[in-house]
C-alpha cells in the first residue's frame, strides 16, 4: 500500500508531498520512485525497480532528491560529497519555500528545524555552532549559483553581495596599480 499525502493547492512542495511514497517491496519511504501505469497503488523505489520484475509499464516520478543514494557506494568520496551537497541544497530550497507546518516530507521538516535553529542561535556569530556553520556553508554553495532576486534561502542575498565585492576588489586593485604605473 502506498502512503501518499493529499495535494495542497497552494503548497510549494505539493508535487513532492503528492509523490512521496512507500516502496511496495522494501517499505522504504522515498521521493523518487517508479509508479505502475496499470496497477492502482503500486510503486517501487529505484533500487527495487532495478532488482524486481514487474509485468506492467512503469514511469519514474518524484523530484529526484533521493535518486543518487542507491549508487552512493560505487562513487568516489568526492562525487558522493558533491551529490550530498546538491541534495541538501534542494532540501533547503524546498524547506524555505514550504509554508505547511505539517509538511510530510522528512527532509523538509528537518531542514526547517535547522533554519529555525540558525535564526535564533546565540553561538552563530562566534562560529562555535556546528549546525549553523554547516547551514551557512550550504547557503554559500547555493548562493554561488543563485540568480533569483528574492531568494527564500537564508543569507543568500548577503552572501551574493559579499561574493560580488570579493570579485571587484582584485579588479579595482589592478586598475589602481596600472594607474600608478602610468604616472
Secondary structure elements and pairings:
Layout: H1 14-19, E1 21-22, E2 29-30, E3 33-36, E4 43-45, H2 46-51, E5 58-61, H3 77-97, H4 106-120, H5 130-145, H6 156-182
Antiparallel strand pairs: 1-2, 3-4, 3-5
Q: How is this structure best described in words?
A:
α3 (77-97) crosses α4 (106-120), α3 (77-97) packs across α5 and α5 crosses α6 (156-182). The chain is built from six helices and five strands. The strands form two sheets. It has a three-stranded antiparallel β-sheet with strand order 4-3-5. The protein has a two-stranded antiparallel sheet with strand order 1-2. A hairpin with a 6-residue loop joins β3 and β4. 50% of the residues lie in helices and 8% in strands. The chain has helices at 14-19, 46-51, 77-97, 106-120, 130-145, 156-182; strands at 21-22, 29-30, 33-36, 43-45, 58-61. With 183 residues, the chain is mostly helical. The chain is elongated and about 80 Å long. The model is unreliable at 1-19 (pLDDT under 50). The longest helix has 27 residues, at 156-182.
Amino acid at each position: 500500500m502506498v502512503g501518499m499525502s493529499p495535494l495542497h493547492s497552494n503548497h510549494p512542495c505539493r508535487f513532492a508531498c503528492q509523490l512521496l511514497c512507500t516502496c511496495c517491496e522494501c517499505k522504504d519511504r522515498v521521493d523518487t520512485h517508479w509508479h505502475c501505469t496499470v496497477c492502482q497503488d503500486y510503486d517501487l523505489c529505484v533500487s527495487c525497480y532495478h532488482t524486481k520484475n514487474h509485468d506492467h509499464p512503469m514511469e519514474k516520478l518524484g523530484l529526484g532528491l533521493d535518486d543518487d543514494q542507491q549508487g552512493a557506494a560505487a562513487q568516489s568520496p568526492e562525487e558522493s560529497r558533491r551529490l550530498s551537497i546538491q541534495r541538501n541544497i534542494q532540501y533547503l530550497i524546498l524547506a524555505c519555500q514550504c509554508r505547511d507546518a505539517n509538511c510530510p516530507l522528512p527532509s523538509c521538516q528537518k531542514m526547517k528545524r535547522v533554519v529555525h535553529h540558525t535564526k535564533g542561535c546565540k553561538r552563530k556569530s562566534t562560529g562555535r555552532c556546528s549546525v549553523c556553520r554547516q547551514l551557512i556553508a550550504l547557503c554559500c554553495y547555493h548562493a554561488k549559483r543563485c540568480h533569483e532576486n528574492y531568494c527564500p534561502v537564508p543569507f543568500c542575498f548577503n552572501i551574493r553581495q559579499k561574493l560580488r565585492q570579493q570579485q571587484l576588489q582584485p579588479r579595482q586593485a589592478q586598475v589602481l596599480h596600472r594607474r600608478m604605473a602610468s604616472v
